[in-house]
Amino acid sequence: MDHISEISVFVQAARYGSFSAAARALDLSPSAVSKQVRRLEDRLGVRLFNRTTRKMSLTEAGRSFHQSCVRIMQELEEAEEAAGAYHQAVRGTLRVSATAAFTRINVLPHINEFLEQHPDLDLQLELTDRSVDVVAEGLDVTIRLAEQLEDPSLVARRLVTNERIVCASPDYLARHGMPKTPEDLLRHNCLTMYTLADFNDWAFEDEKGRRVIHVNGNFHANTGDALAQAVVGGVGLARLSAWLVADALQDGRLVHVLPEYPHSESAFYVLYPQGRYVSRKVRVFVDWLVELFANKPSPA
Q1: pLDDT per residue over 242-257, tens digit each?
Q2: How far is 39 from 41, CA to CA, in rounded Å?
Q3: Are 260 and 274 found together in one domain?
Q4: Which DSSP letter does residue 91 get?
Q5: Which of 16, 135, 194, 287 has its CA 20 to 30 A from that of 95?
């Protein structure tokens, strides 16, 4: 077995966290996967995985080697695509991680249009609001908020402005009163996201200038969807994307709080790794996303 094949097996084993799962993905037997990983470890002279009867994890050397291997496999795939004829059909697996609510509401209703254009392409989509490591996790593309643009090695293309509003249920406001100023929020139960610290710093601007209110409360979630459900349920106030709460505002389940303070500083971006070659599957998907939002000043 050549070195590239060993590296490919190692990357899949690290990705799935078990030899059995990697074997299923590669259509190999678990013993064949284990044997190739051991051969790779023997050749390198280091242990790549910590193995117990219950779980398997990368060693420190394994994590470092894995990052390099992921880049190698991506560049190899991109080089092969670039060497092929441009008119050939887009094929392979496109691995995408995207913010949950934004993608559910604004992208998934249109995704069949993209897949019908590229019937030989498989889309593997993870919906999560956590920050991701595109290279280490073997992703091709990610959709993230401006507050999550942490990796300068990624190419970032802006999709759309993300206007946010502060809102609460009529029941909550009847019990606790309507905030009149941004500073009043410090006396209210404000819902926060524990996976993104910047999300909990609410900026406001008026003739007095710009100030940031660091809010807090007794409910903390990892997705915008969860915060939206909690605020409708009367738990407290939240600052959420206008498109996410539009229906609840329209039917009276939510009330717009401090409407004189619009917030349009955030935006959604599509990101992908820099490289000498950008695979065609990444290029067509990114271009499709940009075109999807080209005529939309805001989502939904």
Answers
A1: 999 999 999 999 999 9
A2: 5
A3: no
A4: -
A5: 194
